[in-house]
Amino acid sequence: MLILEAIGTATKAVFATPERIFFAAVLVVLALAGGSVWVYRGERDSARAELVKARADLAKAKSDNQALAASVSTQNAAVAGLEAQAKIRQYQAAKADAEAQATQSKYTLLAGKIQAQAPGANQCASLHGLRQTFVKERP
Length: 139
Fold this sequence. Notes:
Residues 44-101 form a coiled coil. Helix content is 93%, strand content 0%. It is mainly alpha-helical and 139 residues long. It has a domain at 2-97. It starts with a helix and ends with a helix.
């Protein structure tokens, strides 16, 4: 009981006049305002730190994206070059194949003429062999 009586006596002594009540209210308002400013500053500083970190991450991401874009364009150019080389090689192979077939046909015809000139019974066998060869080569 003594503590409660002491608190009651202290409260009556502090708030005995309206001026003291007003002064205490002003002090309470100032304390609340100071506390809110302190909290606001802390939040503002942490938000600024997060913003700086986000900007640094964004700059790093942009540089990484530029490096990746350069790498992709280099790879695309290399792939296009390889595709062009493959088409050239395919064309060259088709051309060489056509030339080989033309040469083979020429020699086959020449061989046929030579075999057709063979005298006697071998002439029929030669022509038959030539026909068989020609049929196998050209289905």
